[in-house]
Amino acid sequence: MKKKTIIMALGLLLLPVAGMAQTLVLTQRDGTVNRFALSDEPVITYSGSDVVVKCGDSELVTDMADVLSCTFDSETTAIDKLSAQPGGAEAKMNFAGMSVEGLRAGDRVAVYTIDGKAVSSSRANADGSAALKLDGPRGSVYIVRTPNKTFKIKK
Questions:
Q1: Which residue of 56, 67, 110, 147 has the smallest Cβ count within 10 Å?
Q2: Would you say 70 and 38 are in contact if contact means Cβ atoms under 8 Å apart?
Q3: Tens of pLDDT, residues 39-76
């Protein structure tokens, strides 16, 4: 009971910090790291000696003794860490979708949502460009994959 009170008190102390954070991070003693987007409104409850985190359709149940830390983080994904590669393909957004230039004729271009769902693909024409249709709303982020370069683009 004392441990539960301490964890709850720490959580309350961290609330001002959470205003700047984007992710709740629950680290377990075995090294498992669980991340929950604050925009998904995760709910932490206690059931006996278990910590229960419900976030959308998923639920994490772990023994309180196995929880090493519960923190907030401002980093949401590793997508921002994709490095720019010099030369090669370049993507440009347009009203119909996007165009990719700087390819070799016949190169395949594939576009994925940030959760990995394939949404479009095409092959480069003779002048090394490919046109792809994107139906997502304005502000959508996509991962574009070519044979020599992978990058993200925002619609």
A1: 56
A2: no
A3: 778 888 888 889 888 887 778 888 888 888 888 877 54
